UniProtKB/TrEMBL annotation:
Belongs to the TM2 family. The chain crosses the membrane at residues 190-210, 222-244. The gene is Tm2d3. Residues 189-236 form the TM2 domain. It is found in: Membrane. It comes from the Eukaryota. This is TM2 domain-containing protein 3.
Length: 253
């Protein structure tokens, strides 16, 4: 009986061990399945995030709204042919004949709006001008710097280095700012008519010389009574012909 009882106990233990082993195998499979199922959404999520990051929408940078400096000189909706040269770009034809009319193809610069004779907006147009360089223009077509350091009354007449700029409505070839040698032509505000009148009426007292800023000569005439009248007559002639001028070397007005 005891042996039979022991045999039954061993069978029970073997059954329990077999049950536990099968349970552990089943739990391991379930864990691997759960890991696989969980890893698949994560990989899918990673792919979606990667695709999202690589497919980021492209935003075009906004264009600059800054107004170019040349727009100050460019009238809006004016005639294209009357625009200043700073408002357009032209194909220069240097093979034109000097002094002859020439036609140039031009295009307005960005942000510049102009119209033709029929009030139609256009970008490409032509300009008719005389074939000549800017430094060959008439003196009325450009403005030059003035000098007050040179003498206008001298022999020979003095010149000075001036910087000239072509006026906006004038078109020409080459640089629009150029150097040029000019005669001294500045004035200090002295009038020739006033100097002559003083020389005739009060020249004996040196009033004409005082007016022109020549104090030493004025004092000489004052204390010599106009050189007994001879100096007075000579000054009337010299001022009348313009030989005697202001002491600062400027021109009469």
């Amino acid at each position: 009986m005891a042996a039979l009882w022991v045999l039954r106990a061993l069978r029970g233990l073997c059954g329990v061990a077999l049950f536990l082993s099968q349970l552990s195998i089943l739990s391991g499979r379930a864990g691997s399945l759960m890991t696989t199922k969980l890893s698949q959404p994560q990989s899918t999520l990673a792919k979606s995030l990667t695709s999202t990051s690589t497919n980021t929408p492209y935003f075009k940078p906004a264009e600059s709204t800054e107004i170019p400096p040349y727009m100050i000189k460019c009238p809006s909706n004016g005639l294209c042919s009357r625009l200043p040269p700073d408002c357009m770009t032209c194909n220069t034809n240097y093979s034109c004949v000097y002094g002859k009319p020439a036609t140039f193809d031009c295009k307005v610069k960005p942000h510049v709006h102009c119209v033709d004779e029929n009030n139609h907006e256009q970008e490409n147009f032509t300009i008719n001008m005389t074939c000549q360089f800017c430094w060959q223009l008439a003196t009325s077509d450009y403005v030059c710097t003035n000098s007050t350091n040179c003498m206008t009354v001298s022999c020979p007449r003095q010149r000075y280095n001036a910087t000239c700029t072509v006026q906006d409505h004038i078109h020409c070839l080459g640089n629009r700012v150029f150097p040029k040698m000019l005669y001294c032509n500045w004035t200090g505000g002295y009038k020739w008519s006033t100097a002559l009148a003083l020389s005739i009426t009060l020249g004996g007292f040196g009033a004409d010389r005082f007016y022109l800023g020549q104090w030493r000569e004025g004092l000489g005439k004052l204390f010599s009574f106009g050189g007994l009248g001879i100096w007075t007559l000579i000054d009337v002639l010299l001022i009348g012909v313009g030989y005697v001028g202001p002491a600062d070397g400027s021109l009469y007005i």
